[in-house]
Design a protein that fits this description.
Two copies of one chain form a homodimer. Chain A is an alpha+beta fold and 404 residues long. Chain A folds into two domains: 3-183, Beta-Lactamase; 204-402, Orthogonal Bundle (Hypothetical protein af1432), CATH 1.10.3210.10. In chain A, 51% of the residues lie in helices and 12% in strands. Chain A is built from 17 helices and seven strands. In chain A, strands 1, 2, 3, 4, 5, 6 and 7 form a seven-stranded antiparallel sheet that branches. In chain A, helix 2 (22-37) runs antiparallel to helix 7, helix 3 packs across helix 4 (68-74) and helix 14 runs antiparallel to helix 15. Chain A is elongated. At the A-B interface, helix 1, helix 7, helix 12 and helix 13 of A face helix 1, helix 7, helix 12 and helix 13 of B.
């Protein structure tokens, strides 16, 4: 292998290892592979169970013709079984690279065949191909890298021996980086699963339904997005808001589930749910839970300072608390509760408007009302059904075999 | 740089990227660096806040003299401030490598000095040193790699230019791998934090104390360890067991907190906590929560088939359920409850023995009783205090400023 190529590979390895977002990583892998081999196009398949999933593609020809965004939309995720019929499948099964000078000349008795459907559909001519297995450190196949049409002096030429060597090395680096990015994804998803169970476990004895939590989350996201929050912060408030009432686990049933009006003493105890939530979520290193704690403690504060537990006023109330206040009250008014029907739309909006600047931050309320179209879609998507109000009433019908 | 060294580095990069355990990774980094430079010894410092923390070391001389384990015990974690006085501190601040042919000849007017304390204490002579900064992809210092005494024909010689070049490349690879391993650790710890909050949130309205959950966890670990579970499985049951009563969030206060005996109807509802827990934890991709689900559903089954909810018998009951059954009942008998004092030791053991083979798996009970010394240490470490029974009674004394 050429010494400058080897030196390049060290830097590439470091660059790949630094990317934990799978989509970005696959894109960098493809663009790097294109550069190393002068390939016009390339794509990556990842192995999931017994399938090859088409995950990423780049193509100079298509990018010039349609632009990057449109090309990626056209070549969406698709999947195929891992069999020796297809070129990618053959490589995934044999774990050996294929360097095909001209796919049109693959003999018909060959186990694998080139499928020209997409070429015909999109007016592209695939000639040379270099396809390598993406093997992890234990030599297990995790995907296939497919490079198409090496270009030299504006002509399509076969991939060289040097191309094949460097791509094989590069594929090992790419495979371990992909595996790490997937591990990071798995860890994050596992954590999210636990966070949502935390919300749902505490929702069980509450009067609210699971859909209430989902709706409040979505309404908060709509507000945050339209207030100009960054993509990350929008996601953060979306994930943090289902825990806003987590402190209700500490409130006695006699108060939490009381059908009528609470006495002043009972109300005082009920209001502690904001503080109990903050105690449960105290000192967490988890960003989502830190936000949940702020929301728990402040979602019952009012803009004019008459809320609880601290009577904070105006912008003293953290913005997350001001957002959830609007989302939570809107949901209480606009959806059915076991003790009341949903209010009609005009009545809900009238009540919200009447509390503009007293209960609600006027700016946040305005943003919310301006986006009622989005809000309504959420309300209808996560509408409560009759059985949602009858939690755990069907224990005796449970199929145990599915629980273990 | 020599071509064979460059090629080696590609493989090294892949190997480093595949290790997510920080201690194992640091050890591999050191042994690889020793091989690349013929160094007799080496150590790694990681930067944490404004300190350099000594994290790992290897030394052929010491390993020969004391063995690997003893050496690593002697050179335990220690820390020092990042200042230009020390060699590692100098490298961390200037971000430049130092290749020192002979530390005894460092001029006294030099900003950094060699500290010979450890050499004198352990009869070692440091002469040549090669110290490189571990810089991440954004050129931020995350640690320092220190190599000592390059050996050639049994003599200590200075590190060469080639050693310096390859170690610098290698240091970049090592830094990104260290950063990734730390990220994985952080993600795992964040997740554990959430899992423990899930347990503690649901424990709030239960009659049990937080220490009850800790004790049951530890007792289960003792049993699993002595049953010969793998290290991973022991840890898994330790982390999964605090959720055994999570389903109690779904039981009404009137039953959950009833002081006297339950009626048969109330008991039937109370027993549903096993199923509610399994529902809350259903279909989780998280290994710990999968185990928690099994434990929730089966920790009230009895060995003779008279338990609930399914009346499973003998080995039909998953082993985790049989373990927690012993740990949970032992804890109920041996610790104070708000309605009863702790039973004396002999009485507790007598009751357990009487239920050997009926309530409890005899093998598991025997293992537990054989390890009462360990059990007692746990019981005393996590003993309940008076205030533990008075949950959230001190709301009004809470310092709000610490909650937000």
């Amino acid at each position: 292998m050429l010494i400058e190529n080897i030196q390049k590979l060290i830097d590439i390895g470091i660059a790949l290892s630094s990317i934990h977002n799978l989509d970005k990583l696959l894109d960098l892998i493809l663009s790097t592979a294109q550069t190393l081999t002068n390939a016009d196009s390339g794509s990556i398949y990842l192995v999931e169970k017994d399938k090859l999933i088409f995950k990423a593609s780049r193509s100079n020809t298509y990018f010039t013709r349609w632009g990057e965004e449109k090309t990626k939309k056209i070549f969406k995720n698709f999947e195929m079984p891992v069999t020796k019929n297809s070129i990618a499948g053959y490589v995934a099964l044999t774990l050996q690279p294929l360097n095909i000078p001209d796919v049109r000349k693959i003999p018909s008795e060959c186990e694998y065949h080139y499928n020209p459907t997409l070429d015909k559909k999109y007016n592209y001519e695939t000639i040379s191909m270099l396809v390598t297995p993406l093997l992890n450190n234990n030599n297990k196949i995790i995907g296939v890298l497919q490079l198409i049409n090496s270009i030299q002096e504006n002509k399509i030429v076969p991939f060289t021996e040097e191309h094949q060597k460097i791509t094989l090395y590069f594929s090992s680096q790419a495979a371990v980086a992909i595996q790490n990015a997937k591990l990071t994804d798995e860890l994050k998803n596992a954590h999210l699963d636990t966070i949502l169970r935390l919300a749902s476990a505490t929702e069980i004895r509450d009067k609210e339904t699971a859909n209430h939590l989902k709706r409040v989350s979505h309404y908060s996201r709509i507000i945050a997005k339209n207030l100009g929050f960054s993509k990350e912060d929008v996601e953060l408030i979306f994930l943090a808001s289902p825990m806003h009432d987590i402190g209700k686990v500490g409130i006695p049933d006699s108060i939490l589930l009381k059908p009528g009006k609470l006495t002043p003493e009972e109300r005082k105890i009920m209001e502690k749910h904001t503080i109990i939530g903050a105690i449960i979520l105290k000192d967490s290193p988890v960003e989502i839970l830190v936000k949940s704690r702020i929301i728990s403690l402040t979602h019952h504060e009012k803009f004019d300072g008459t809320g609880y537990p601290r009577g904070l006023k105006g912008k003293e109330i953290p913005i997350e608390g001001r957002i959830i206040a609007v989302a939570d009250v809107y949901d209480a008014l606009s959806s059915k509760r076991y003790y009341k029907d949903a209010f009609p739309e005009e009545k809900v909006i009238k009540i919200l408007q009447e509390n503009r600047g007293t209960h609600f931050d006027p700016e946040i309320l305005d943003v919310f009302l301006k986006n009622m179209n989005e809000v309504k879609i959420i309300r209808e998507t996560y509408i409560d059904k009759e059985e949602d109000f009858d939690k755990f009433s069907n224990f005796d019908k449970i199929d145990f075999s599915k629980l273990i």
